[in-house]
Amino acid sequence: MKHIFFALIMLSALKGFSQNGLISYEDIKFLLNNNINQADTFLVAKGYVITKKDNNTKNKKYALTLQGGTHNNISLRADGKRLFIEIETNELNQYNLIRESISQYLLKDSMAADVQSYSVKELGNIYITVNDTMPYDPMRKDYDIQVVGDKHITAYN
């Protein structure tokens, strides 16, 4: 009986971590406020693989392949003490998670042409563009999410 109960708890815990590889408001806040080298440990723990690491230009790229053939690609660029984040994905849940997790921290949002712009408390600005996939698939979209931290948010070195 104990083994069955323990197995049920473990299965529910695994199901709870099904969004483990997706990035939320708290994850973006952590990445912006910490050194770019800590991003390696953080993102690898979430299941990402380092695809490009250039210490001279302080650029790093990470990739994660999700179930169903979708993917998340994250690019980090350090410019002095500021960090810029770009997320390229075709995972609808990633897009929804970011929109839902920032909803309670929104200062201002707007839509100009094809760019959704959000000003987020204690974070900065988030710009999201939604494009059709190539080749065209009505069930999938490409989402480009760019995060530009406020000028007072700097990473610890």
Q: Would you mind describing this structure in some detail?
A:
This protein is α+β, with helices and mostly antiparallel strands and 157 residues long. The chain has one domain. It contains four helices and eight strands; from the N terminus they run αααββββαββββ. The chain has an eight-stranded antiparallel sheet, with helices on one face. A hairpin with a 3-residue loop joins β6 (115-120) and β7. The radius of gyration is 17 Å and the shape is globular. The N and C termini lie far apart (51 Å).
In DSSP terms (H or I, runs of 4 or more residues), the helix count works out at 4
Give, in order, the helices and strands.
HHHEEEEHEEEE
Report the principal-axis shape.
globular
Helical/strand content category: alpha+beta
The neighbouring-strand order within the major sheet is 1-2-3-4-8-7-6-5
Low-pLDDT segments, ≥5 res: 10-18
Tags for this model:
single chain; alpha+beta; 8-stranded antiparallel sheet; 157 residues
Q: What is the element layout, followed by pairings?
A:
Elements: H1 2-16, H2 25-33, H3 36-45, E1 49-54, E2 59-65, E3 71-79, E4 82-89, H4 92-102, E5 106-112, E6 115-120, E7 124-132, E8 141-149
Concise overview:
29% of the residues lie in helices and 39% in strands. By secondary structure, the protein is of the alpha+beta class.
